[in-house]
Amino acid sequence: MNILLTGGAGFIGSHTLIELYKAGHTAFVIDNLYNSDREALRRAAQIIGIDEVPFMKADIRDRKALNEVFDHHHFDACIHFAGLKAVGESVAKPLEYYENNMNGTFVLLDVMRKHGCKNIIFSSSATVYGDPAVIPITEDCPKGHCTNPYGQTKSMLEQVMIDLQKADGEWNVVLLRYFNPIGAHPSGRIGENPNGIPNNLMPYITQVAIGRRERLNVFGNDYPTPDGTGVRDYIHVVDLATAHVAALQAIIRHQGLAIYNIGTGHGYSVLDVVNTFMRVNKVDIPYVIMPRRAGDIATCYCDPQKAARELGWTAQYGLEEMCRDSWNWQRQNPNGYQS
Ligand code: NAD
Ligand code: WQD
């Protein structure tokens, strides 16, 4: 299949690009490079073994640019990664987040529809469950209250696509609710490259390991979890990438609407991650216990059985490989793609 990847230069998009080609598909990337680097696409092309990745630098809110891409290419489906994703920033800049994520998706869906491409896989998030009513979280769990505008955009966009599919049965909509993606391509050539101070746990740990930050702040050790620190379902980004390839089956089968949790089903605490990282990589991670971070929940991990049953997809990598590959990427690229 030929797949349009919006936001395909980013962390998850660039890894998915590689797995798509590996599975015999081709792809075209559209990205405004707001939170990514063209170098990621150069390196992805090297890993795939092609001269260059078909790419247009454009904003998905730019209807003219999107029309141009669709006028010149046939796409069997779109995997829609493009969006702003920093939770804290979304609280400070709600309008920018709502505008980019909502409006960008509206323009994309409209242009897709006009060009007869009605197959979409959407990057949703475990954040739509809010503070989950049941653990492990199944897809049947009710959606919860999102504490930030970023999460609201994911929840609302899911609803937009559910309604669109309901109104027009020609659409196939696959909502993938990612849990906590970490790790990097095993080559260490591509990986997560956050701007400024990382918000997420793993990039913060790797920046401590490389000496860019003095110590990790552990946000709270008084949660009702085995060691008091927050528990999450970390998933290797390469596993997450292969989940997108598997999700194409739901489109091929004309499943209409399909919703899947994409995680490993295992919950690890902050200290589990820190200790595994230190043991596997033989580096020290100094840390200090700080107060809880606003908006955090105690425990979040999924039941990934539905994706296993219906898509034949299960995560292959464990926490050790996630820690190994995150460090391998950071060690080879101390300043990310600017190295
Ligand atoms: P990322 O920031 O690395 O990638 C997103 C890409 O979208 C970037 O390359 C950015 O430049 C591009 N982009 C943003 N707005 C755009 C626009 N208007 N037009 C064109 N390009 C635009 O983030 P990621 O971690 O790869 O996440 C990909 C998707 O998965 C996002 O939608 C994110 O919300 C979602 N998601 C991420 C996580 C996570 O923890 N990383 C978890 C759940 C869901
Ligand atoms: C994990 C754990 C923190 C940083 C976020 C978004 C979610 C999704 C994934 C996009 C928590 C603790 C963290 C640090 C710490 N993204 N922590 N020190 O919050 O589970 O999920 O990213 O959709 O929507 O909310 O991930 O990596 O920020 O935190 O102690 O410096 O690590 O408190 O328990 P989170 P995270």
What does this structure look like?
- With 339 residues, this protein is an alpha/beta fold.
- The chain has helices at 11-22, 38-48, 63-72, 87-92, 94-114, 149-167, 201-209, 237-252, 270-281, 305-311, 319-332, and strands at residues 2-6, 26-31, 55-57, 77-80, 119-125, 172-178, 180-182, 216-219, 231-232, 234-236, 257-262, 268-269, 287-290, 299-300.
- Strand 1 (2-6), helix 1 and strand 2 (26-31) form a beta-alpha-beta unit.
- The longest helix is centred in the first third of the chain and has 21 residues, at 94-114.
- UDP-4-deoxy-4-formamido-beta-L-arabinopyranose (WQD) binds at residues 85, 87, 125, 127, 151, 180, 199-201, 204, 216-219, 230, 232, 270, 293, 296.
- The site of UDP-4-deoxy-4-formamido-beta-L-arabinopyranose (WQD) has 19 residues, from helix 7 and strand 8.
Topology:
Layout: E1 2-6, H1 11-22, E2 26-31, H2 38-48, E3 55-57, H3 63-72, E4 77-80, H4 87-92, H5 94-114, E5 119-125, H6 149-167, E6 172-178, E7 180-182, H7 201-209, E8 216-219, E9 231-232, E10 234-236, H8 237-252, E11 257-262, E12 268-269, H9 270-281, E13 287-290, E14 299-300, H10 305-311, H11 319-332
Parallel strand pairs: 1-2, 1-4, 2-3, 4-5, 5-6, 6-11, 7-10, 8-13, 9-14
Antiparallel strand pairs: 9-12
Helix pairs in contact: 1-2, 1-8, 3-5, 5-6, 7-11, 9-11
Bound molecules: nicotinamide-adenine-dinucleotide and UDP-4-deoxy-4-formamido-beta-L-arabinopyranose.
UDP-4-deoxy-4-formamido-beta-L-arabinopyranose binds next to α7 and β8.
